[in-house]
């Protein structure tokens, strides 16, 4: 399923709050901040342009990384999305900043 996800699937959620289903079953409210295309990383035999999705938690969290679930407007529930935490780097240190990479 993940190989069929395109950046367009995330566009309706850009700058919108949405729930991230964590591996322990809890929900973390997040906001998709950016969707970045990486066309130089595309393999010749793959039509999809690799992309990454940056998320910010809307409340403090200890979650670091793992397989999560998101509800995408055009696809519904998508499981097994690996979400990894990034350092705050000058942003609010009480919140979590995350990245999802689709190669």
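^ Assign residues to that structure.
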């Amino acid at each position: 399923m993940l190989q069929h996800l395109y950046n367009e699937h995330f566009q309706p959620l850009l700058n919108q709050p949405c729930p991230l289903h964590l591996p322990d079953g809890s929900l973390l409210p997040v906001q998709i901040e950016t969707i970045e295309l990486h066309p130089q990383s595309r393999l010749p035999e793959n039509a999809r342009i690799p992309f990454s999705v940056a998320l910010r938690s809307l409340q403090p969290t200890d979650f670091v990384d793992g397989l999560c679930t998101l509800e995408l407007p055009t696809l519904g529930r998508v499981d097994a999305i690996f979400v990894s935490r990034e350092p705050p780097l000058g942003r609010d240190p009480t919140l979590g900043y995350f990245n999802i990479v689709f190669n």
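The chain has one domain: 2-102.
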